[in-house]
Give the backbone structure.
Amino acid sequence: MTGLVPAGPDLLDRLRSALGPEALRPPEPRYLEEPRGRFAGAAAAVLLPRSTAEVAEAVRLCAAARVGIVPYAGGTGLVGGQLATAGPLPVVLSVERMTRIRDLDLVDGVLIAEAGCVLADVQAAARAAGRLFPLSLASEGSARIGGLLATNAGGITVLRYGNTRDLCLGIEAVLADGTVIEELRRVRKDNMGYDLRHLLIGSEGTLGLITAASLRLFPAPAETATAWVAVTSPTAALDLLATLREELGAAISAFELMHVQGLAFVAEALPQVPLPPDAPADWRVLVEAGDAAGAHVGDRLEAGLGRALDSGLAADALIAQSEAQRAVFWGVREAIPEANRRIGAISSHDIALPPSRLAEFLARGGALLAGVDAGLRVNCFGHLGDGNLHYNVFPPAGQGRAAFDAVRGAVTEAVHDLAHALGGSIAAEHGLGRLKTADLERYADPGKLAAMRAIKRALDPAGILNPGAVLARW
Amino acid sequence: MTGLVPAGPDLLDRLRSALGPEALRPPEPRYLEEPRGRFAGAAAAVLLPRSTAEVAEAVRLCAAARVGIVPYAGGTGLVGGQLATAGPLPVVLSVERMTRIRDLDLVDGVLIAEAGCVLADVQAAARAAGRLFPLSLASEGSARIGGLLATNAGGITVLRYGNTRDLCLGIEAVLADGTVIEELRRVRKDNMGYDLRHLLIGSEGTLGLITAASLRLFPAPAETATAWVAVTSPTAALDLLATLREELGAAISAFELMHVQGLAFVAEALPQVPLPPDAPADWRVLVEAGDAAGAHVGDRLEAGLGRALDSGLAADALIAQSEAQRAVFWGVREAIPEANRRIGAISSHDIALPPSRLAEFLARGGALLAGVDAGLRVNCFGHLGDGNLHYNVFPPAGQGRAAFDAVRGAVTEAVHDLAHALGGSIAAEHGLGRLKTADLERYADPGKLAAMRAIKRALDPAGILNPGAVLARW
């Protein structure tokens, strides 16, 4: 990342000539902010290409001028990957005008989306064709395909369908020298050389800019069954998952864990959100299964929950009897991140743990935090089926988070150290962005880190692609 | 790949000192042959390390001496990836003494296998624990995990469970300088930097040597249903798949297509193999579905096949009524590659096509071959659910393949050109090895090829890892 220069008027003139005057705008505030308000970005201009060819031309011009490019999709990232906070003034390249669904083929089971397509629009297009595009997460109404791929986003259906990378058969991308790679494959088996698709996915725009992707479509489940279950511990929740798997096999699509602290935050911060009846246990699981009509997922979910209640694994269980009741269950789950935001966390953690280490993590994590302040509150929720928890730490009731600014770093480090020691990931589904570049240096395997740097030098020697994200130095 | 030197006695002495005398052997013929007998390899010695540390030490010594290393796992590869046919005399590094299953954790759903584990042993270990490791292919009795990952092998369950890469949560690997990367993750969500796992998987040992992997385990289906269906065309087979998906959702684990030419080859070359009753159509499908007991996959398969028979989509259908009958169906499918070998193909093709282009491929492919010789026979079979076909061309009945040596190259090129033109892959599940390095140059996206070369230079600048495989030059 040496040798970059600030974007100057000459480059902006060249970009304007190449892409047209409407493709270059001053940076509105929304391009320089992020949802949690922890970073403030800077940019000389926002580029709004309409096509892959225009992206390539913009990259070529920036490469020639040695100016950094910050890729911008939905702007929903939580780790500052989408805004430059330091370094020579870059340009932002937004894919918001590249929103075409280029194809949807039912025989191939493929939808080809440009990077600017909003996830909800892709879901809707699949649904209209009688298929399912399963990726689903809180920001689906604004997150865009390019950003979802760049961060390899997770969400609530990973248990069954995998991460975003697993839903992508091929990509079209622009490399750091403006070369376009056109690999919008429609086949599930392809071993024609190194898998650049998987290398670019999850690289957060630092190795190439994904401009379009061929995405996998799935049969839409004809029948869905949803339940809200009270359990006494995460270990009980894992046992419940094992029991339900015996009944439901691969039909379980979501298995979300919530601590009652999260329900209390929703009640406090979002009182208009209806809550299911209370139950005598500290944890809740939202489980959903779906399959073809003949698979009787409703009966099987009921049978599994019956076994769990009989054996004492579950303290209480409600199966949604209507779409409205299902919406109540999901509404609570979806309200938790917003409630967290309103309560105001000291420190948020996007971690994944081997399920076998989960109980140990929670016990030791609780002890660590008690050592900082006995009143600290934890709202732990997440995608238990994947071992992915959002372990968010809040000030004692009645206190603001500002009072804890001094310990935030120590809290974050202690939680991350613990997760790492237990074989977990400290960047499960949100990416590294600019928030966790030091964490990468601290926790990554040194050989892997060295290889990452060598790859970055090989594919982006001038360092123009999303400078400062993922790798702070290389 | 410049600057390599032949393995000389000094290096062999150093390797013997470091790894012990029993870890260095003269190359027996089996290390220098491959199943189809198209390549003959050469090597100064075979190294047999017992541990990752010994692999790393061997790599460091070879790197210092600038001697190539040809990694060897099960030796079942069909594209010559496992033997050196040209260049300075290398050493072979076999993982056959690294066969430990380091862990099997039911809560995490993970099995950690060393690279030398034979696939059948991993399957058996999973089965003994009440789980399924779904990877399954013809050579599973001898193929080893390291080679399966290096080639990202496919097989018969990709439709449901994905390719080998999709079954791997993490790897341990040795890079070209002897660095060990220890990333045996047990979590499904991890975005700690670039995905080296996916980069090394499928790189055929040219970027690093995978020494162990954490593999995903799945619930073992309690009930399995298997059918043998006669259909009139591959298009009808695709329609049958769509119909069965409506009934069976995600429960379909295999959907294998066979032309009756393959059955005739089995009858001719392997007359001891029992065949199901004949049926009035040119194509057969072997379909299998599995799920939990309450999912009634047998009933649903019957319902789907009933619909297919009623609508004329299927000409005939047999559901296996016993494990013995299921074994007959699978026995035919599994005998086809061996029958092919005995008949003697002119040219074999491991291609994948977008399902929507399949009929066009077969029509145009047939016309192309008729232009060479009207008597040529095609045995087309494969994993239709993935679009992966083995399209193998045989001499006219009564003629040997030697008579067609002169046209082999033209036949291969015509078939590959056609598959590529239709958006297909010419290296679907067997890899590139040394057989298809020119194909890579011919068919790969030029930008991708340049990026591959840059990555190779970055990670293995001296070119010691599997020289001559995948990239002939870089």
About this structure: Residues 323-343 of chain A form the longest helix (21 residues). Chain A has a mean pLDDT of 96. The longest strand of chain A covers residues 223-231. Chain A is about 35% helix and 20% strand.
